[in-house]
Design brief:
With 320 residues, the chain is an alpha+beta fold. The longest helix is centred in the middle third of the chain and has 20 residues. It starts with a strand and ends in a 15-residue tail after the last helix.
Amino acid sequence: MSELHKFLFDGLPVRGVIVRLTDAWVEILKRRRAADAGEVWPWPVAEMLGEMAAAGALMQANIKFNGALILQIFGEGPVKVAVAEVQQDLSLRVTAKVVGEVAPDAHLQQLVNVNGRGRCAITLDPKDKMPGQQAYQGVVPLNASHGPAQPRLADVIEHYMRQSEQLDTRLVLAADENVAAGLLIQRLPAEGEGNLGGQKMEMEEQLEHFNRISTLAASLTSAELLQLDVETILRRLFWQEKMLRLDVQTPRFACTCSRERVAGMIRGLGRDEAESILEERGEIDVSCDFCGQHYRFDAVDSAQIFMPPGDKPPGPTTVQ
């Protein structure tokens, strides 16, 4: 079963989260195969989406926010956009739009940043918006991390956290066909941080503690992250540290699509466009990019979509 563990380092302004998506990740891949008649995303794309799912779960678990955290990678290359969406209860889903061939050994730059204009966006979309309230979004270029010549997704998100959230972060991500996993370490602002004088030495000492723990986290290999259980990983990395463990959470796959939402999308197309599709194909067939669920609307269903609310007959025709 998928699991997410949060922990604190006792007496230090450093926190951590580790996640292993097992059944949730396998379910995502299985649904993709079913939707595409046995095919799935090219492996470099699937690996990136697995890492995005793990990263999204780690970030969502670290904030107190009633809504969806949406991680998007978009730019130029065969992958036009990749999305991981994680709800407050850690239910998650991912998808990508792929156009063209993907090399078997393609990395992030080749997937979405061919001409250096790729972007990473993190959006916090509140569940119950107040009037006029907008979702918060932060965006960073994929090539702005000043890290390796071929930055990884983890490098991009680390840069985002330092740039947008002012949080020193170490992130390790990995994915294979059975597991998508990640480890996140963050330095929390120390008491008095930002003040001059007597707090300076204490803050330097706290930063040294974070750098020590961050270095230990960075020593974790992809193979270890994917193959070892959580207890073994934490014991091997931080056996000299005193840790406070919090309750275990259980991420899961879930999709928020519904027949009502698809009906709203068709309504947005307009009656003329809907009737044109019906005339050409006999029905409107919409497939969810996230879960592969098909929603089919015939001429009667379409007529009810565009019928004024007061004239609609009772019944479950638009209820999924």
